[in-house]
Write a structure and sequence with these properties.
By secondary structure, this protein is α+β, with helices and mostly antiparallel strands. Among the domains are: 62 residues, no CATH class; 87 residues, no CATH class. The protein is 29% helix and 16% strand. The chain has six helices and seven strands, in the order αβββββββααααα. The strands form two sheets. A four-stranded antiparallel β-sheet has the order 1-4-5-6, with no helix packed on it. Strands 2-3-7 form a three-stranded mixed β-sheet, with no helix packed on it. Helix 3 packs antiparallel against helix 4, helix 3 packs across helix 5 and helix 4 packs parallel to helix 6. The longest helix has 14 residues. The model has no long low-confidence stretch (mean pLDDT 87).
Length: 215
């Protein structure tokens, strides 16, 4: 009996909280805006070069955090000595130095839709040396919009013949606006008989005295 009680005392209830398995490391971005972790390199936006970065690595993702804010997230690489770039991280720098756009290593394997290349050539024909910078402004919209949504906006821009990044942005924002929810009487037959009279502004006159003070 005593042995059974001892066994019962050693048993512990299953914790209610889910166990979260991850690994934390403190490091910093290098001159190429890369963070080294587990013998691989992961990109962060160029503004975080040389800044302290906390790596939170789960089984399948690497989260890169600066001062409590996640600034980048990559699939975790199982190979070694690999470099994982997010091209969007380098667009702010390339907008200031557009001459390096066509040769930038982080953009080498960026597989963009065909319509983006057409837009770039159209910008270059319209703006000459500034065309690449204008195109980069369009790509920077990927920071807050999906590639599919931007692709749709670019295709529409080409269709209507617009040639500016601002026009593409307006098309994108317009297409992502939430429709206004209008009140519908469908399924509410008891409300169809309700009639609301048009308000006459003269009715408010009775609230005022002759000297304009509420009576």
């Amino acid at each position: 009996m005593l042995l059974e009680e001892e066994r019962r005392d050693h048993l512990r209830s299953i914790p209610k909280e889910e166990f979260s398995s991850f690994r934390l490391e403190h490091t910093k971005g290098d001159s190429l805006s890369l963070v080294r972790f587990d013998r691989n390199s992961y990109s962060v936006p160029t503004k975080y070069a040389y800044r302290p970065i906390t790596v939170k690595a789960t089984i399948d993702q690497v989260h890169l955090i600066h001062e409590g804010v996640e600034v980048a997230c990559h699939p975790r690489c199982c190979n070694k000595e690999q470099t994982l770039y997010n091209p969007v991280h380098y667009l702010a720098l390339l907008e200031r130095k557009p001459g390096g756009f066509d040769h930038a290593r982080p953009l080498e394997h960026w597989d963009l839709p065909v319509s983006f290349g057409i837009l770039k050539r159209r910008f270059e024909a319209e703006f000459s040396s500034q065309g690449t910078r204008e195109f980069i402004k369009v790509l920077r919209l990927l920071k807050s919009h999906s590639l599919s949504a931007l692709k749709d906006a670019v295709q529409h821009a080409l269709k209507i013949g617009v040639t500016s990044a601002d026009a593409v942005r307006l098309i994108l924002e317009h297409r992502e606006e939430q429709p206004v929810n209008l009140f519908c009487l469908e399924g509410r037959p008891h409300l169809k008989s309700v009639q609301i009279r048009q308000t006459s502004v003269l009715a408010y006159q009775s609230l005022l005295s002759s000297n304009g003070v509420v009576s």
